[in-house]
């Protein structure tokens, strides 16, 4: 068992949520890492395979959960924690060439969801994930069927200006059915999608006139969705804007997990 968190503001995504209901227990369907609730910092992870699913998680023995395209999927924080750092959240997906349980995530990834900031990025409460206990997205309805590694990530940017952006990420194993013939894009490799100097990674929220925040990584696939600010950037005067939001959930009742 993990020890209770003792570092204020640190967190870990351990519980899979499907259509607002928890499925399994902690790490039943999410790959458990060896970094527990501690963050990974820019220099340590930006070019490391640990950027995929966190340190020690690549070969974790997790089960695979059956969902449908259009289902709402969430990643809940462990131990009733809340996100208490400013910064954006993302969900990336990568289709496994076969059994996702043996997939190391070295293939192509696309961004299915992002949640940024509405208003000035220097104000913590303007971030869409502030004081939330989970990150949720809707599986794109046009996604091809198959087994997927689904990666959630929150980047805490309060120390990004000194090279210490904090990365919190986990991966769930999902088997998706009822999808379509979409072609997710743009495709990226992880690591390889960021550099330490990217404006959204090395961001300084403490400047006098912060201005805009540029979301790091590729654009959200048009079949995916975004929350908070627009997909590319937010300004001090921006209002909430939805971009490419998918259709509502189909309601995948009776989904079952299977060992993989």
Automatic annotation (TrEMBL):
<dbReference type="InterPro" id="IPR005103">
    <property type="entry name" value="AA9_LPMO"/>
</dbReference>
<dbReference type="GO" id="GO:0008810">
    <property type="term" value="F:cellulase activity"/>
</dbReference>
<keyword id="KW-0378">Hydrolase</keyword>
<keyword id="KW-0136">Cellulose degradation</keyword>
<feature type="domain" description="Auxiliary Activity family 9 catalytic">
    <location>
        <begin position="10"/>
        <end position="206"/>
    </location>
</feature>
<dbReference type="GO" id="GO:0030245">
    <property type="term" value="P:cellulose catabolic process"/>
</dbReference>
<dbReference type="Pfam" id="PF03443">
    <property type="entry name" value="AA9"/>
</dbReference>
<keyword id="KW-0119">Carbohydrate metabolism</keyword>
<dbReference type="GO" id="GO:0005576">
    <property type="term" value="C:extracellular region"/>
</dbReference>
<dbReference type="InterPro" id="IPR049892">
    <property type="entry name" value="AA9"/>
</dbReference>
<keyword id="KW-0624">Polysaccharide degradation</keyword>
<feature type="region of interest" description="Disordered">
    <location>
        <begin position="221"/>
        <end position="260"/>
    </location>
</feature>
<feature type="compositionally biased region" description="Low complexity">
    <location>
        <begin position="229"/>
        <end position="260"/>
    </location>
</feature>
<keyword id="KW-1015">Disulfide bond</keyword>
<dbReference type="GO" id="GO:0030248">
    <property type="term" value="F:cellulose binding"/>
</dbReference>
<protein>
    <recommendedName>
        <fullName>AA9 family lytic polysaccharide monooxygenase</fullName>
        <ecNumber>1.14.99.56</ecNumber>
    </recommendedName>
</protein>
<keyword id="KW-0964">Secreted</keyword>
<comment type="function">
    <text>Lytic polysaccharide monooxygenase (LMPO) that depolymerizes crystalline and amorphous polysaccharides via the oxidation of scissile alpha- or beta-(1-4)-glycosidic bonds, yielding C1 and/or C4 oxidation products. Catalysis by LPMOs requires the reduction of the active-site copper from Cu(II) to Cu(I) by a reducing agent and H(2)O(2) or O(2) as a cosubstrate.</text>
</comment>
């Amino acid at each position: 068992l993990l020890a209770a968190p003792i570092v204020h503001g640190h967190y870990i995504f351990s519980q899979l949520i499907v259509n607002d209901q928890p499925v399994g227990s902690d790490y039943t369907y999410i790959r458990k890492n060896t970094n527990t609730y501690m963050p990974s910092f820019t220099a340590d992870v930006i070019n490391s395979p640990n950027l995929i699913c966190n340190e020690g998680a690549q070969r974790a023995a997790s089960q695979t959960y059956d969902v449908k395209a259009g289902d709402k999927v969430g990643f809940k924080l462990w131990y009733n924690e809340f996100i208490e750092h400013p910064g954006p959240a993302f969900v990336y997906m990568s289709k496994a060439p076969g059994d996702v349980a043996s997939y190391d995530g070295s293939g192509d990834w696309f961004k299915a969801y992002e949640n940024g900031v509405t208003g000035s990025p220097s104000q913590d409460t303007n971030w869409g994930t502030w004081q939330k206990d989970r990150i949720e997205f809707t599986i794109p309805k046009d996604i091809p069927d198959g087994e997927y590694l689904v990666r959630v990530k929150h980047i805490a940017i309060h120390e990004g200006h000194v090279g210490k952006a904090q990365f919190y990420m986990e991966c769930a194993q999902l088997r998706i059915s009822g999808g379509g013939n979409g072609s997710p894009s743009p495709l990226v490799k992880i690591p390889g999608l960021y550099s330490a100097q990217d404006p959204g990674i090395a961001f300084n929220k403490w400047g006098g006139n912060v201005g805009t925040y540029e979301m790091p990584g590729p654009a959200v696939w048009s079949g995916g969705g975004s929350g908070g600010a627009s997909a590319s950037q937010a300004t001090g005067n921006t209002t909430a804007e939805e971009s490419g939001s998918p259709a509502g959930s189909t309601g995948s009742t009776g989904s079952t997990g299977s060992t993989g």
